[in-house]
Design goal:
Strand content: under 5%
Oligomer: single chain
Structural class: mainly alpha
Number of helices: 15
Distance between the termini: 81 Å
CATH class of the largest domain: Mainly Alpha
Shape: flat
Number of strands: 2
CATH superfamily of the largest domain: Winged helix-like DNA-binding domain superfamily/Winged helix DNA-binding domain
Radius of gyration: 24 Å
Number of domains: 2
CATH topology of the largest domain: Arc Repressor Mutant, subunit A
Length: about 325
């Protein structure tokens, strides 16, 4: 057995990506495949793909760029290894506190998905020992809660809200949608049946409830309005992360997937069992694109129209 074949799978991935960087196939600033794409291409587990990218980060060859992904930071020729740690009586996490830990975790989740976040990957991003994180964060579950709270704090709701319940609910929905767009993993974390006890999440509930307070609704109805609006936004947003995962696992973009499955859909439509469905497909424009941003706005207005008889009974 050759040495290359004897190496662990993650090291073979590291060697190949390092070679591509050194040869100029991946230049400084170029985006690397995501952990899901690596897992699909090399047929390895997500954890193995994450370990490969973490190793390249530790070497200083790549870095996570929020909203973009993992990019090439430098070439192997220019990479300078970290000097060996000098003996010190100071604990390696003395300079560390929870905020940079949370921010590093958010950056990894934004670029590679929530599955790529682990105490080890965050520690590698910060250049500290994994165990040092546990002095500030109890567990990964605790870390995800802190990430979620920090992300919801990004939406600064106005101290002086616009006039009228409709304008306020519209503002709340659009601000939540913007958060999900910036952080696609967020929709996978929040829930209506098991609400998270997070201060910055409750801020949004307070804003919506205050907008409809005094309109003659009982407490249960007020909560149903809030939860319905919240669920509408999250329900569409959850497709952002799902689509990314589907593209990574299948290697097909949404358009390519539709092209591949068009013959089967057309065969079903042409069977005569679904005449309305077939008629809609026949009339559909060739350039039709199911855009999630458009879909969000398309449904928001009718949803609020549906609230109108309830909220304006007087």
């Amino acid at each position: 057995m050759t040495r290359a074949l004897a190496d662990p799978p993650y090291l073979r991935i590291v060697a190949e990506l390092r070679r591509r960087i050194a040869d100029g196939e991946l230049q400084v600033g170029a985006r690397l495949p995501s952990t899901r794409q690596i897992a699909a291409q090399w047929r390895v587990a997500i954890a193995t793909a994450t370990r490969a990218l973490t190793t390249l980060r530790q070497e200083g060859l790549v870095r996570a760029l929020p909203g973009v992904g993992t990019i090439v930071a430098r070439t192997p020729r220019l990479a300078t290894p970290r000097p060996p740690a000098r003996p010190s009586t100071r604990h390696p996490s003395d300079e560390l506190h929870s905020d940079p830990i949370v921010r590093a975790a958010i950056a990894i989740a934004d670029s590679e998905g929530l599955a790529a976040v682990s105490m080890r990957s965050v520690a590698a991003e910060l250049g500290v020992a994994t165990m040092s994180l546990y002095r500030h964060v109890a567990s990964k579950d605790d870390l995800v809660l802190r990430m979620t709270d920090a992300v919801f704090a990004e939406a600064r709701l106005p101290e002086t809200p616009p006039d009228g319940w409709r304008a306020r609910l519209t503002l709340s929905a659009r601000m939540q949608w913007a958060l999900y767009r910036r952080h696609p993993w967020l929709a996978q974390v929040v829930s209506i049946t098991r609400p998270l006890p997070l201060r910055n999440l409750i801020v949004h509930g307070e804003f919506v409830l205050a907008a409809i307070d005094g309109l003659g609704l009982d407490a249960a109805t007020m909560l149903h309005v809030h939860v319905t609006l919240f669920s509408y936004v999250r329900g569409i947003a959850i497709n952002i992360e799902w689509e990314s995962e589907a593209e990574a696992s299948s290697g097909l973009t949404e358009e390519e997937w539709m092209d591949a499955h068009s013959p089967a859909l057309e065969a079903i439509a042409g069977s005569g069992a679904f005449p309305t469905f077939a008629g809609v497909l026949a009339r559909l424009s060739d350039n039709f694109d199911l855009d999630l941003d458009y879909l969000f706005e398309f449904g928001l207005g009718p949803l609020l129209d549906g609230f109108t008889p309830l909220l304006e009974r007087g």
